[in-house]
Specification:
Largest sheet: 9 strands, mixed
CATH superfamily of one domain: FAD/NAD(P)-binding domain
Bound molecules: flavin-adenine dinucleotide
Helix content: 25-40%
Oligomer: single chain
Strand content: 25-35%
Shape: globular
Distance between the termini: 64 Å
CATH topology of one domain: FAD/NAD(P)-binding domain
């Protein structure tokens, strides 16, 4: 089917795609939003919203719908490999992705985007090789959706990305596994998010994020950057659930719940690497573009921000295909330095002694604690902290 009236087709209705569709449709552009799933649908995640996510939601006018369904917390406790706790104060929320993504998806439809449930198969390319829309499969039949601008927001899986971007990397930057659990002994509660840099997981970590009804999203993230080393994530999560490791000892044994189909794992694409970000007629946003931070694995905020960036460039544009090229340049200009800093932090954090030293110093110096807090709250550029000079300053200040 031809779609003569469509300005932008957005492929993928996760946080990145729904945010882009919302802002584009709200500005009066004719938007088709495609996803292979029907909503609500789950997405394997830690369910934590850190300050960048909250800021993006507020900016887009999507905050109230999320806030009323999320658990509010104001403390993230990071444990070093030796178990030294660093308290990072800030505004956080924990909300199940099944709920969160549906709120954003509905917001895009309310703003005027038209939804098509269909699986995206490949791009339509004009004779010059520029993207001119997508081919989708619906009920066993292929259809074309033509548009001057295609926004690819299909998440971390590499196969579909590769069809749009021949140079894209299909391997994962990391893997994570999560489950939903409650304390085995009743009456215990938690008022904070935990991230624990367990020695055998470095440069990854274990997490426990208490959500609504005091049900924890609990999991293990492993940045597979260490070549030749394999890790059984399921066994690592078993250990955490049975109360072992720094975080396990702090939480005590946990009991699984029926939420979220038991253990679920997924790959991550991090570091703003692995895709070309865009070209004429195409903008690649969210996890497809690697907008999840290395080391922290937090990606919802920057996925939404990338949706905001493409919408900002497209609204009012007289040359929608060109937005793909402008978007690529804008993303690099706004974010390359920050993502480079996180990639470098991931390399440093393989050294457990360094993580312990930073945690030790943060407990003795309010200045260092303030610096670390400002990285999470994004009041300062993490590059200043995660450089060699920055680490030296952290240890000596
Ligand atoms: C285990 C785990 C824990 C995490 N924890 C956190 C956390 O606590 N906080 C945080 O900020 N980030 C976390 N992240 C990262 C976060 O999940 C991602 O950064 C975020 O989901 C990216 O959003 P997105 O819209 O780019 O992609 P997605 O959320 O993956 O959405 C992609 C959408 O595209 C659709 N799609 C895919 N292929 C096709 C196709 N061929 N045709 C049609 N539709 C298609 C999918 O159905 C999906 O709806 C975690 C990741 C993992 C794996």
């Amino acid at each position: 089917m031809d779609s003569p009236g469509v300005d932008v087709v957005v492929a993928g209705a996760g946080p990145a795609g729904s945010m882009a569709a919302r802002m584009l449709a709200r500005a009066g552009l004719r938007v088709v939003l495609c996803d292979k799933a029907t909503f609500p649908r789950d997405k394997t995640c830690g369910d934590a919203l850190i300050p960048d996510s909250i800021a993006a939601l507020r900016f887009a006018g999507a905050w109230d719908g999320v806030a009323e369904r999320a658990r509010a917390l104001d403390l993230l406790e990071v444990l070093s490999p030796r178990g030294i706790a660093v308290p990072i104060r800030g505004e956080y929320r924990v909300v199940r992705r099944r709920v969160f993504d549906e709120v954003l998806f509905n917001g895009a439809l309310q703003a005027g985007a038209e939804f098509r449930q269909a699986s995206v198969k490949r791009p339509i390319e004009d004779p010059a090789g520029h993207v001119a829309g997508i081919v989708v499969e619906r009920s066993g039949r292929e259809e074309e959706i033509r548009a001057p601008l295609t926004v690819l927001a299909t998440g971390a899986e590499g196969a579909i990305l590769k069809k749009f971007d021949a140079s894209a990397r299909t391997t994962a930057s990391g893997y994570a596994i999560r489950t939903y659990a409650v304390h085995a002994s009743p009456g215990r509660a938690s008022d904070r998010l935990f991230i624990s840099l367990e020695r055998d997981l470095l440069p990854g970590y274990a997490w426990a994020f208490p959500g609504p009804e005091n049900i924890f999203n609990i999991g293990v993230f492993w940045a597979s950057a260490r070549r030749g080393r394999r890790l059984n994530l399921r066994a690592a999560l078993d250990r955490l659930m049975s109360g072992n490791g720094n975080l396990g000892e702090m939480l005590g044994p946990m009991k699984p719940t029926s939420l979220g189909d038991g253990y679920a794992g997924a790959m991550l694409r991090t570091g703003l690497t692995g895709s070309s970000l865009g070209r004429r007629g195409l903008a690649i946003i969210g996890d497809a573009a690697g907008t999840t931070y290395s080391i922290s694995g937090e990606g919802i905020g920057k996925a939404m921000e990338s949706g905001l960036v493409v919408a900002e460039l497209a609204v009012g544009s007289r040359d929608l295909p060109q937005v793909g090229c402008l978007y690529k340049a804008e993303m690099q200009q706004r974010y390359a330095r920050r993502f480079r800093a996180y990639r470098s932090a991931e390399r440093w954090m393989r050294l457990s002694i360094l993580a312990d030293l930073v945690a030790y110093r943060a407990n003795r110096s309010p200045t260092i604690l303030r610096h670390l807090t400002s990285v999470v709250t994004e009041d300062s550029l993490s590059g200043d902290v995660f450089s060699l000079k920055g680490f030296w300053a952290l240890l000596t200040r």
